[in-house]
């Protein structure tokens, strides 16, 4: 499903360092996530969590090693093969990234329209997913009229409306209060129960304690995981009874 | 009903380009350029018509008259002329055609002694016909060289170069229009950078995103071009009307229609579609090149 193999990543410098490669943001990261798993991605700020997630949703390519996502080998895949795989991946960002000039409905419908779904069949799906996140009444509102928690639920609705195979969330609760954060996590867990592979990056330890699951620890760009060469945390609790 | 309409409108414009790429600046600039293009097109066609007409008139750039010539003298003159390196072609004009040419001035030519006339084409139009005449006079006394056609030929050459100049202007105008569209496209990309990146992340292909920009900018360019071409039509009609004595367009009672009928309508009608294509292609190239920096 998702496989990292000795992945190294450097960013190209900008500003005064334009053209020069920066230090390694990731070094020798190796792990594999099975289909249908739920995985926490943990570590302090700057540890490389976002870089791992960006590799997973094909926003960047590795500098070294190989990243395999949904059967696509990212290091050498031709550029025109990426969009089709991206459509099978849902992404939730800390800053939501909704389009401000589109209504809630149009924001959620965007992935379906990009996939070429006809308007007639798309309406029911969008309405259903909005009901699932509890915001069907706000379909015609503009994102700016919603609270942060509501905007994040819209972002989740947009990420899952295509029933993606992989869902990645980068600090999705960073801008939410704890009650809204728990509600959001419940939605992510439910997607996981329905069969989607979910990866959530966070540094919110309370949240992890409430929803125990396998975790990857990153520290200074390396997987901090002396016991398990695959990178999967071994002693995670079973987690199906959390809601 | 209004929300439905709004929804339908937005669903076709997920990048919000209608708002990001709006305002009169781009259509206005393209309109100015279309006006120039229309003038250049009309100029090219007008110059071509003049050149063609003048060149026909200058078929015999130089004529040689041999007053009181008999057949032997004419043959001698032809031989001498054909031997000269400056002369590309020398041909005796037959009497019937000469009579036809003179009829408007002399009426019937029955009984009048006509000179023998030889038509010359010079190898180099800049060669001096006076020298040809001097050399011929040494062989056939009394030969007269008439070089009015050379002037016509030079005018035709001028018209021809004007025509080429018009084409160059046309290419330049298209180039400037493409540059203007490229600048507008970059501005649109800067204004909608976040949206483009969101769409790219959601799995939009380069062709999806570039196509949306290209349609929008192509339509804006075509709209501006329509305005500019329409503005050029009255001025062109006036010019064509003024030029009609030379091009012969107004002759034969059609002057009442003024310049309208003589305007190069197909070429003018092509200006807006060509502007659409220039805008469309420029936007496609600009957006696709910009998208290359995304993986």
Describe the protein's architecture and organization.
The complex is a heterodimer of chains A (243) and B (295). By secondary structure, chain A is α/β, with parallel strands linked by helices. Chain A has helices at 49-56, 82-86, 104-114, 119-132, 148-160, 178-193, 205-210; strands spanning 2-12, 21-33, 38-42, 64-69, 72-73, 89-92, 166-170, 197-202, 215-219, 222-223. Chain A has a domain at 35-59 and 86-223: Rossmann fold (3-Layer(aba) Sandwich). In chain A, the strands form two sheets. Chain A has a six-stranded mixed β-sheet, sandwiched between helices. A four-stranded antiparallel β-sheet of chain A has the order 2-1-4-5, covered by helices on one side. Residues 229-243 of chain A have low confidence and may be disordered. Chain B has a four-stranded antiparallel β-sheet with strand order 2-3-1-4. In chain B, α3 (25-57) runs parallel beside α9 and α7 (148-191) runs parallel beside α10 (265-291). Chain B folds into two domains: 16-55 and 160-291, no CATH class; 62-146, Alpha-Beta Plaits, CATH 3.30.70.3040. Chain B contains ten helices and four strands; from the N terminus they run αααβαβαβαβαααα. Chain B starts with a helix and ends with a helix. Helix content of chain B is 69%, strand content 7%. Chain B is an alpha+beta fold. Chain A binds chain B through residues 57-61, 79-80, 82-87, 89, 91, 97, 99, 101-103, 105-106, 109-111, 113-115, 119, 140, 158, and chain B through 3, 6-7, 10-11, 14, 16, 19, 194-195, 198-199, 201-206, 208, 295.
